[in-house]
Amino acid sequence: MALDTDKIDDAVLAILSLTLHYGDQVWKGVDWAITDRLHDKGLIEDPRRKAKSLSLTPEGVAHAREILARDFSKAE
Questions:
Q1: In a 3-state reduction of DSSP, which class is residue 23?
Q2: In 10 A of CB 75, how many CB atoms?
């Protein structure tokens, strides 16, 4: 599956903009509220652990693949 990286870049930029502070600065990671919601939905493992990465659940992997195919794939 070919991904439309322009759409992905737009989505990431939009998400990063949710954490704007000091005018134009954004946090490198995703806001805790978002990871908490994803955890509540059963799509990621506990985001509050000390690791710097997140783990997707099998349901999260499947849902992410659906989103990529539906919203971010290039028309052929």
A1: coil
A2: 5
CA diameter of the chain: 42
**Claim: this prediction has a pTM higher than 0.70:** yes
Token representation of residue 51: 């690791």
pLDDT in tens, 44-57: 999 888 877 889 99
How many CB atoms within 10 Å of residue 9?
10
Q: Is 21 helix (H, G, I), strand (E, B) or coil?
A: strand
Distance CA 30, CA 19 (A): 8
Could you read off the pLDDT of 7-18 as tens digits, one per residue? Answer: 999 998 888 888
Residues 6+ apart with CB under 8 A from 32: 47
Q: What is the pLDDT of residue 55?
A: 92
Number of C-beta neighbours around residue 48 at 10 A: 9
